[in-house]
Amino acid sequence: MEQNQILTGALQMFENRLQKLKKEREKWAKREGIQAYRVYEEDIPQVPVILDRYLDDYVLYDKSSLRFQTEEEKEKRFETISDIVRSVFQLSKAQLFLKTRKKQKGKEQYEKLDEDKKALTVTEHSARYLVNLSDYLDTGLFLDHRLTRSWFSKAANSKRVLNLFCYTGSFSVSAALGGASQVTSIDLSKTYLDWAKQNFNLNGIKTEDHSFICTDILQWLVDESRNEARQRYDLIFLDPPTFSNSKKMRQEWDIQAQHRNILLSLLGKFLSPGGEIWFSTNFRKFEMLIPEEEWLSRGYTCLDRSLESIPKDFRNTKIHKLFQIKAI
Fold it and tell me: Domain named S-adenosylmethionine-dependent methyltransferase: which ranges (predicted)?
């Protein structure tokens, strides 16, 4: 009985919090010129959900565990929370997309959740991005990198840019809009590369002026490093997965174990003199294994920009880490 009272009180607090955030976020987003942003992020411990807005649609993520509840209780609580969200924002069922992560193994975690393909275009400052709210756990646009995309766009002017593990190409679009002379986007997934091309088209960027390569990135780096005529880049963006054992890759990938090798190989073999690498990861326990003195001895600085890169609408300041590596 006491537990039910605590939950009832927490849900009332959640509803009140949403009412407040609704007004605040709408005004802020309008001033910022953005149509996709975070509304609520586990503000109340007893209501561990995340709510994101995309134009007039919303995505609700269930972040609760099964530690103190059954699967049935978990589903019922999420349903109650969903009803509160619909009520506060006056949404139809079709306007709220529910995401819940279940225990999955191997390739199951990357499979589609649905086939509805609820796709729409959102504006972020001067850029436009295609998002899919229904079919995957992620929507195709990482909102926590909004500030980083803006910075990257400014840094890309007149630069040759390489975007590794490019996903749907949002950073490639940012670079091209910022005046990059040429952008090379590489990913293992043809689906994501096609998505990236759609994002280029949405922004009036000619895809034929840039390169899109579908391949195993780790193997590509090995092969290209042996090519004496290989391209060098002024600006490299690297945001790899935390871990991957995909059968399409010749070797397993682990961000903590292998970031040192990939960063140093990029420095020596792919970065042009005076160039920069922007390296990001969402692995919360990540530790940079290249010490400051080693960066300096190689003629570089490594600036940790993690905290300043977290947008205002995010409570979680550990959602990603960002390092800017540049020649001295």
Answer: 115-278
User: Would you say domain 142-327 falls under CATH 3.40.50.150?
Assistant: yes
Return the structure tokens found at 221.
């780096």
For the stretch 136-139, contacts whose Cβ atoms lie closer than 8 Å and that sit 24 or more positions apart, written own/partner, are 136/112, 137/99, 137/101, 137/113, 139/52, 139/54, 139/59
Neighbours of 179 (CB within 10 A): 12
pLDDT tens, position by position, for the chain (328 residues)? 455 666 788 999 999 999 999 999 999 999 999 999 999 999 999 999 999 999 999 999 999 987 778 888 899 999 999 999 999 999 999 999 999 976 544 444 444 555 567 899 999 999 999 999 999 999 999 999 999 999 999 999 999 999 999 999 999 999 999 999 999 999 999 999 999 999 999 999 999 999 999 999 999 999 999 999 999 999 999 999 998 766 666 678 899 999 999 999 999 999 999 999 999 999 999 999 999 999 999 999 999 999 999 999 999 999 999 999 999 8
How far apart CA 45 and CA 181 sit, in angstroms, is 47
- Which residue ranges make up each domain of the chain? 2-110, 142-327
Alpha helices in 35-169 (DSSP H): 71-89, 146-155
pTM surpassing 0.85?
yes
Q: Report the run of H or E that residue 260 belongs to, with start and end.
A: helix 255-269
